[in-house]
Amino acid sequence: MAVLIQVRNAHKRFGDQVLLDGADVSLVDDVKVGFIGRNGAGKSTFLRALLGDEELEQGEVIHHPSLRIGYLRQHDPFQPGESALDFLMRESGQPDWRCGEVAGQFELKGDYLNGPVKALSGGWQTRVKLAALLLNDPNLLMLDEPTNFLDLRTQILLEHFLRTFNKAALIVSHDRAFLKATCSQTLELSRGKLTMYPGKIDRFLEFREERREHDRRVNATVIAKQKQLQRFIEKNRANASTASQARSKAKQLERLQTSEVEVDEPTVHIRAPRVTPRQGTVMRTEELAIGYPGHTVAENISLEIEHGQRAAIVGDNGQGKTTLLRTLVDSLEPINGSIKWGHATELGTYAQHVYSSLDDRRTVLEHLEYESNADTTRQDCLAMAGALLFRDSHINKKIKVLSGGERARLCMAGLLLGTANVLVLDEPGNHLDVETVEALADALVDYQGTVIFTSHDRHFMQRVATNVIEVRDGTVKNYFGNYESYLQSVESEVDEGERERDRIAGKAAPPPPTKAASAEDYRASQRQSRKAEKEIKNLEKKIAQLDDEKKSVNEKLLTETDPDEAVRLHDKLTEISEELEQAEERWMELSDF
Q: Which residue stretches does the UniProt record annotate as biased composition, category Polar residues (predicted)?
């Protein structure tokens, strides 16, 4: 297992902000790593340092001689008038047949391959860029938010590609479902340090929360013991008969101070608008047609949405999801038909056409105070601003100097402080990190109003959506199933498309085994199956035993007052948790078998 990139003692800061503080990590040649961290933590800076585009103040980045990096660029690399095929040939130096073959893996064919690449949507352009990466034969892919603006079908294609890509990858993403499906390890950048966890993101987040909870308990125990020792010292140091004891306790106090636990990063908490729950139909469309002058996107739309529903608008890019949302909020005139909103409906809208038109003269704080509910305090505004990464001097920034991502977050903050009882949200998770997306999902689940939204983040969709509306082939209709069933149906369509592509390409299925081979394979399979069943039973007993041990140590840790013993229990708990995780992973492997 070769180390492709090794980072040693990396230091980097911007002004007062420390991005890398003695960070170390190694990336090896056959592991896909999900890279996470709070917005502004320095993930993109770190990627640029790996590429050699950013200098470190101290430390080194060592590349293996055979390293070939494929980096998914966010900027537009296309020349005016060139087709996707032209771009692939120019970028890779490969012949047209080879470029077409690789492009086919991403369903790039016909007009998508031979027409102007700049006329394609962002999702299709990302497919073109991915095909270009593959043509250059990298052994390390570096992808920075690859799922932004990708529809579900393209995300699934990208997942399938990454699962069959038998080399290394480093993937920055806020999409937990995507990272879980593609990455076997998780790398976190926090407080300037890099932490590599040998497991998927869900396990890492659970592990991190357990670790923080243990740290809080140990810290509370240490602080309580410090206070107890301090009281004893103050009471007894002036007394000749107890002065030596007081000196001994003072030495204990010094040792305790060295074992204090670092304070956690601020926890993101977001609240939704406080509204009164209502019953009945909130919105109805009749014979609605949507689109633009000279171009109808969808027609004969008859929908009803009830108060309290959280309706997910789904469909491939270019089918008309955003067009539908803009028509519903009266940002776009309907071509035909009508939209009727219920009595006393107050709409709150989050979409690019909204956050790109904020009042440039206001500061961040002034905007939030202007948009917020009448009974909202300045502290509420500051708390919401902090949750969406406007802290300290940033709250006094003028809107005119904010980036596109900052404007989007500010618009979201103002919306959540308002009084809207219907929220219409177009890609609300863009520009947010994993923790903030999760906090937003929590807020929307608790929200007593109605939500109509689109998102490319499957974990977010599964958390929030109560019903699904599909935009497809010029129609808009209720999907009779939940988001999970919709996801499965798209997976099946993608799988069928890939099988058909392989059939056309002449990739025949492997021939059936001979009878002799089949009999021998069957006997071997039976032996393996019996062995696996036996190991599964033993693992189940071990998992139950470790679970009991973990609970017992946890209970002791909650009540332990001796700091040294608390530290020992914490180490014991970490050891049990690691052993339990290994046993559970092995059980899952055998269960799949």
A: 238-247
DSSP string, 560-573: ---HHHHHHHHHHH
Q: Residues 347, 424: contact at Cβ < 8 Å?
A: yes
Phi, psi of 479, deg, nearest 5: -90, 125
- Give the separation between CA 213 and CA 207, rounded to whole angstroms: 10
Whether residue 423 contacts residue 282, with contact meaning beta carbons closer than 8 Å, is answered with: no
Strands 193-197 and 185-190: antiparallel
Q: Where are the domains of the chain?
A: 3-205, 281-493, 532-592
Dist CA 133 CA 345 (whole Å): 49
Token pair, residue 95, equals 């012949």
**Rounded Cα distance, 332 and 295, in Å:** 13
Nearest to 303 by CA among 485, 475, 484, 481: 475
Cα gap 125→84, rounded to integer Å: 8
Whether the pLDDT of residue 63 is over 50: the answer is yes
How many angstroms from the chain centroid is the CA of residue 4? 25
Task: List the one residue out of 126, 125, 132, 67 whose CA is nearest residue 93.
Answer: 132
131: Cα separation from own chain's centroid:
23
d(CA 469, CA 481): 10
Residue with tokens 């959280």: 310
Sheet of strand 69-72: strand arrangement: 69-72, 140-144, 168-172, 32-36, 185-190, 193-197
pTM value is 0.68
Intrachain domains 3-205 and 281-493 with the same fold: yes
The Cα 448–Cα 450 span in angstroms is 7
State the Cα–Cα distance between residues 175 and 459, nearest whole angstrom. 7
CB-count exposure of residue 194 (10 Å: 0-12, 13-18, 19+): buried
Q: What span, in angstroms and rounded, lies between the C-alpha atoms of 509 and 550?
A: 48
Structure tokens at 394: 């940033």
- Nearest CA among 530, 539, 305, 285 for reference residue 422: 305
Beta bridge partners of 525: none
> Which residues of 73-222 form beta strands (DSSP E)?
140-144, 168-172, 185-190, 193-197
Encoded tokens for 546:
């470790």
The domain made up of 3-205 is a member of CATH 3.40.50.300: yes
Return d(Cα 121, Cα 78) in angstroms, integer. 13
Residue 295's contacts (CB-CB under 8 Å, 6 or more residues apart) are: none
Distance from C-alpha of 449 to C-alpha of 477, rounded to nearest angstrom = 22
Q: Which residue has the tokens 């969709």?
A: 461
CA distance 211 to 197: 13
Q: Which two tokens stand for residue 466?
A: 């109560």
Segment holding 328, helix H or strand E = helix 321-328
Distance CA(365)–CA(375), nearest Å, equals 16
CATH superfamily assigned to domain 281-493: P-loop containing nucleotide triphosphate hydrolases (3.40.50.300)
pLDDT tens by residue, 111-146 = 889 999 988 877 788 889 888 988 988 999 999 888
HSE toward the beta carbon, residue 20, CA cutoff 13 A: 28
What's the pLDDT tens digit per position in 383-399? 888 877 787 788 888 88
Residue 398 C-beta-side C-alpha neighbours within 13 Å: 4
Q: What is the DSSP letter of 374?
A: T
